Amino acid sequence: MSAPDEDTFAEEGGEMEELGEAGSDEDEGVDMEEEGADGGEDRKVYVPGIEPLRPGEELEMDRSAYRMYHECQTGAPCLSFDVLRDGDGESREQFPLSMLLCAGTQADTALSNRLLVIRMHNLHGTEKDKEGEESSDEESDDEDDDDEDKKPKMELAMMAHYGGINRVRVTRRGEQSLAAVWSEKGQVEIFDLQPQLEAVHSSAAMATFIKQKKEATALFSFSGHMAEGFAVDWSPTVPGRLVSGDCKKNIHVWEPREGGTSWQIDQRPFSSHNKSIEDLQWSPTEATVFASCSVDQSIRIWDIRSPPNSMLSANEAHSSDINVISWNRSEPFILSGGDDGLLKVWDLRQFKTGRPVANFKQHSAPITSVEWSPVDSSVFAASGADDVVSQWDLSVESCDVGARVEGVKDLPPQLLFLHQGQSEIKEIHWHPQMPGVMVSTALSGFNVFRTISV
Question: What are the residues facing 167 on neighbouring strands?
């Protein structure tokens, strides 16, 4: 996939693909089984990792398994992104939907990279095939017009950024929308996204923005890490407070200064890990506490009032590198995913035992991203290098599951859904203002979807 030129997105409007080519996507396969029975076709449930496709077999997406599905591309792949909160309200479920994302590219050359703000809007839900079958030929013209009205739209505001972007995280501080960017340059930079946000909401502002062809100029940057890194997280309780970790095992905490344009960073790092820091997560309730995971196979809990060592640790939490963690917003649980393909749930009340309270092996390759649902404390999602996004619900028990179709009987009852169709999935996020809506980014582009399971 080639990187975009300066003028690739000279027009402020763009269109996304709806229900494009995608893999088989099932919750528990019931819908697909029923369709095969009714239509007389030889269709069956496909479960990734259990049985390989035979020659001549193709995966076909089951539209009825989705309430919404869209896909788009942005030129060079964005291997990290974050969701920007907007002012359109909470708990939005009425179609059409809209959303704002901030993403960073990993292009073929350092000069070709971009920091993006993306506005997707006019996002309609999927329509069941059966409803389409009932319509007559005479109504087809009206349906074509209706389809045109329902085409999803996308605006992109791009700023040139020297160096590939390893990870992006966004926050609000007062009136500012800020992005923290870890890049391959070995710097962590803070950017004010206001010009880009104005551009994606106004064609006049977009025209001015494109004409200026701005490079991304950091509000603030920190070069104190001795190597590049991936781990960074904004505090959800103290506006502007940040933590960043690098591949040389060091973690730095950033404290915002008055004025909103600079940060105080303690030069003495937090340093109990002995290998690369892979992910960081602030506690959602305790302002001074954060968690980390590392290539050294441990998860650690820290208090910034007691540097430089961690308070608690689970050593050998996974059998190989721990890539990602997520801290539950309302329960004392941390979710972790590693190179071993395992998903583990840790109860902080039992953290010292070094034993997780739940352990799932569904993915057949390293876990690349995990995140608890922002609205349901028992639900989480994960993505893996096996090109699968999985959705789970810890509240489901074996006795809750009724008769299950052949092929899925051996799956964990907590597994809700397996989403496919992307290659090399790198990061997933739930949308905090739209229950059940997920966004995933991969080498092949973005998917925006909501399944029937969540």
Answer: 182
Query: Which residues, 6 or more positions from 81, have their beta carbon under 8 angstroms from its beta carbon?
Result: 101, 102, 103, 104, 168, 427, 429, 439, 441, 446
Asked if 263 and 222 count as a contact pair (C-beta separation under 8 A), the reply is yes
* Rounded Cα gap, residues 65 and 75, in angstroms: 29
Reading the block at residue 46, the tokens are: 């496909």
Average pLDDT value for residue range 97-101: 98
Which residues have CB under 8 Å from 160's CB, separation 6+?
6, 111, 113, 114, 213, 214, 215, 216
Q: Is 211 helix (H, G, I), strand (E, B) or coil?
A: helix
399 CA to centre of own chain: 31
Q: What is the DSSP secondary structure assignment for residue 69, as one 8-state letter?
A: E
Please name which of 151, 195, 116, 210 lies closest in space to residue 14, comparing C-alpha atoms. Answer: 151
CA angle 30, 31, 32 (to 5 degrees): 95
By the 10 Å C-beta count (0-12 exposed, 13-18 middle, 19+ buried), 213 is classed as exposed
Q: What confidence tier does 321 reach under pLDDT thresholds 50, 70, 90?
A: very high
* DSSP secondary structure of 381-418: EEEETTS-EEEEETT--GGG-----TTSTTS-TTEEEE
Residue type, 182: W
Answer positive or negative: Cα dihedral of 420, 424, 427, 432.
negative
Tokens of 75: 């030129």
Q: 344 with 355: CB under 8 angstroms?
A: no
Q: Tell me the pTM.
A: 0.89
- Per-residue pLDDT band at 139 (split at 50, 70, 90): low
Interacting residues of 55 by C-beta distance below 8 A, sequence separation 6+: none
- Residue 152 amino acid letter: P
| Top-confidence range, 40-44, 240-244, 266-270 | 240-244
For residues 427-438, average pLDDT: 98
Identify which of 337, 345, 241 has the alpha carbon closest to the alpha carbon of residue 283: 241
Helices (H) and strands (E) in the chain, counts: 5, 30
Q: Is the dihedral of CA 147, 149, 152, 153 positive or negative?
A: positive
Q: What is the token pair recorded at 329?
A: 């917003």
